[in-house]
Write a structure and sequence with these properties.
By secondary structure, this protein is an alpha/beta fold. It has a seven-stranded parallel beta sheet, with helices on both faces.
Amino acid sequence: MDTVIVTGGASGIGAAVARLAAEQGLRPVVWDLRGGDMVVDVRDRAAVEAALAEVGPARYLVNNAGPASGGPALPFADGLVATAGSMELVTSAWLATGPPDGAAVVNVASVAGNFVGTDSAWYSAGKAAIAGYTRHLATRTAPRVRANAVAPGFIDTPRMAGFADTPLGRSLIERNPMGRAGRPEDVAAAVLFLLSPAAAYVNGVLLPVDGGWTVSQ
């Protein structure tokens, strides 16, 4: 049974990824600061390397952990480290373990910074950096390891609780061709596709999962 490490997997998108991975016959291992299978701070190299040693060989990696756009304001440089820097740390440590041929990594970026701007400079820049780092990986680790990213739009997760009922939230839904907010399962399905052999020739993409919101603006 192939192992997939899911960072930030205790709730929201990460939890949906772990559930769907298990349903599809994978062994999900959830890393999170608030529960999950292992408590791991993805900004701490020693903690990441220790967790990787404990997990053992993992064919797949889903980099989902990161700060929320609506969380505490961060200095710009700290925000970049917390978003893109932590993903680079985890990925480089995972690659050093020598994942087998046919391995894949999926990074969770955002429509923010890649297709639209936000009020938060560090969040927009960090999510754009994730997409750039994914393209770097795709050209340096293939064919042994494929690298792709997803860019969620407005997804109804615990972090976004109540947002759909705000004027901005209602406006976003009204302007979305699908007429609703996304669900964590919508993103999880895209992630599992990109990990799977069905996407064996998909490498270096940033896949929006936003119901068509960005193309309708």
